[in-house]
Design a protein that fits this description.
This protein has 8 helices and 13 strands. By secondary structure, it is an alpha/beta fold.
Length: 272
């Protein structure tokens, strides 16, 4: 994948990691615009290539009464407005074959969720839109097995594939990041480390996923040191009241300090 091929991506000559960041789900226009404006300011200041992330709907929910979205078209139009307002690319995840063309009309990158990355028809449908495809590594998959997911994209005539690691299941209610997987998966495609989802604590008895956000900088630093091409971070100005995945999100107020520290590490690594 060539990051320069993503529409409206900036700062590609800065020799920095790129960043996918935003809320877990689009809860409304005001919140999306507020988050995007803040992150754009930070990434422009630090010369980080930035892609706004927001799910237009949430299909993988623990309980039937969990928040799933504000309406597909309404959320997708908000993603388009974010892109047009701030001149940045956007990414959203899809869950069904029909979602591929629908979402591709509004965003620049289609993301295949971790639980669905082995679904051949879904991956192929996404790839055939011609959009960049972000393949989330299944929590149940080895790094080596992700070469097959990438190959499905390539065999569909699309060379714009990226892999995102979001941890591997460790028992019933925890995840670990195996940093040995980063160089392995970089043989197949650029690798992003999903910091916040790697710190989830799924399968809680309450039916609401937990998390350990206090470990965000620890995992992020290790990812940069180990050569990830990009970082994925879900952030919100009010994580406690976010409608999805608030327990493992980074508070928006803490993003600039984290990015400043990580850019400094990246610069040090680049001089070695």
């Amino acid at each position: 994948m060539k990051i320069e091929a993503i529409p409206q991506i900036k700062h590609t000559d800065a020799d920095n990691f790129f960043l996918l960041a935003g809320p877990c789900a689009i809860e409304g226009e005001d919140m999306a615009m507020r988050i995007a404006e803040k992150v754009v300011g930070i990434t422009d200041k630090l010369q980080i290539p930035y892609i706004f992330k927001g799910s237009f709907k949430k299909a993988n929910r623990s309980r039937i009464d969990s928040f799933t979205g504000i309406g597909d078209e309404k959320a997708l139009k908000i993603l388009r407005k974010v892109s047009e307002t701030f001149h940045i690319p956007t990414v959203t995840d899809i869950h069904e074959i029909d979602d591929a063309e629908k979402a591709a009309a509004y965003v620049d990158i289609l993301q295949i969720p971790a639980f669905l990355v082995r679904q051949t028809d879904l991956v192929v449908a996404a790839a055939k839109t011609g959009k960049t495809i972000n393949l989330k590594k299944g929590q149940f998959m080895s790094p080596e097995s992700m070469k097959h997911a990438v190959q499905k994209v390539l065999d569909s005539g699309n060379e714009q594939a990226v892999i995102t690691d979001r941890g591997t299941m460790f028992g019933y209610q925890d995840l670990i990041v195996d940093f040995r997987g980063i160089p392995t998966m970089r043989k197949y495609a650029p690798v992003v480390l999903d910091i916040t989802h790697s710190l989830q604590q799924p399968n809680q008895t309450s039916g609401v996923t937990g998390g350990r956000p206090e470990m965000i900088e620890t995992i992020a630093r290790a990812g940069v040191v180990n050569g990830v091409d990009g970082l994925f971070i879900e952030t919100h100005f009010d994580p406690a009241n976010a409608k999805s995945d608030g327990a493992n999100m980074l508070h928006l107020d803490h993003l600039e300090k984290l990015m400043t520290n990580l850019v400094a590490i990246r610069k040090t690594i680049n001089t070695l």
